[in-house]
Amino acid sequence: MRPRIGLDDRRIDGFTSIELVLVIAVTAIVIALGISAYRTYSARAQIAASIEDTAAVQRLVAAAFTSNGIPPADAAAAGIDETARGFLAGTYIESLDVRNGRIDLRFGTKAHPAIVGKTLSLTPFETVEQEVVWVCGNEPPGVGLKPLGFASGTLQAVQIPTSVEDRYLPPACR
Hints:
This protein is α+β, with helices and mostly antiparallel strands and 174 residues long. Helices cover 34% and strands 16% of the residues. The chain has a single domain, classed as 2-Layer Sandwich (Glycoprotein, Type 4 Pilin). Strands 1, 2, 3, 4 and 5 form a 5-stranded antiparallel β-sheet that branches.
């Protein structure tokens, strides 16, 4: 004769529906956080690459200031013609403008959707020794830095706030 199995002796294998729903919910949250982090990372990487792409423009602005003693009023005064401006802008930049030494980058359609149409400025400041130091975006200038052109009393570079959200800016631009 076989012994009877009581209700307490039964063993149930598998997941309950509540456990399955919880696992799916936690997985969805982790995936959503991963996608958000990747979006932020990719936009930040494009901005950093664009800043690196404009290194030649920064050197031209600094050279124009060093030779003339005043910041270049526009791209032409910095020695950048229309053809060169398009070439020096980089992959993600729609337009590159120079205004009193400040470089304004406007992101185009090849950039991450979160930064398309946004503007980021690279503002030149000068030290007491008249060396040029670049400040990116909303970063406050360091102690002792004055807007480029301050020492000569001429046109001065003016720092303007960026329209790019802080979370997309590289740390050096916040």
